[in-house]
Design goal:
Elements lengths: L11 H4 L3 E10 L9 E11 L5 E10 L10 H7 L13 H19 L3 E6 L2 H14 L7 E8 H9 L4 H8 L11 H21 L9
Parallel strand pairs: 1-4, 4-5
Antiparallel strand pairs: 1-2, 2-3
Length: 214
Amino acid sequence: MEHKNNKINYFLKKRFRNFYPVVIDIETAGFNYETDALLEIAAITLKMDKLGWLKKKKILHYHIKPFIGSIVNEMSIKFNKIDPFSPLRGAVSEKVAINKIIKKVQEGIKLEKCKKGIIVAHNSIFDLNFFMSAIKRNKIKKNPFHTFVTFDTATLSGLALGQTVLAKACKNIGIYFDNKQAHSAIYDATQTANLFCKIVNKWKKLGGWPIKKM
C-alpha cells in the first residue's frame, strides 16, 4: 500500500517478514553433516533499492580446513575437485569462517532493522544442516539465523520456472550458467543469489508485490 507521499517503503524486513536473507553455499567432503568435512563456504548478503528491486550486496568466501576427526570421502572430492589438504587453498578453520559470516550478518540485521537472518540456498536443507552442525561443533552461541526455516531456491524455481536443477533454472530465467565453474561455493552461491533475486523481482514485476488490498 502506498504512503501519502506516494513512495513505497521496500525495506527487506517488510518484504520477508522481518527476516534478513543471506545466500549460502557449502561444499563438503560427503553428505553426512555430523561426520563429513566442510571444505568451502560462501555467503552473499542482499539489499533492496529505493524502487524495491532485490540485488546482491556483499560476498564472503572461505576455504575451510577439515575439522579434526572428520571424514573426507574420495568420491566427493573428485566430484567438486577440491583438494582439502592443498597448502595453496589458504584455508581457515570452520570457527574463523563462520564467525566472520555471523558478524557480517549481524551487522546487516541491525542495519535493516530485521529480527533474524534466514538462509537462502539451492536444496537448502543440505546447506542448513552443515552450517548448523558446524555452529554446534564449534560451540558458537550467537547464531543469528533461523534454525529450521529457509528460502529454498529449488522449490521456488519449481514453482516459478518448472525446474529444480540450479543450472536449468538459471537458463530458464535468463542467467548464464557455466557448468565448468559449478560446484565451487562462490560460483554456486553467486548464481543462487542471481536466481533468487530474479524470481523475487519477477514476482514484483508481474504485480505480485507489494500486495494490493482488495
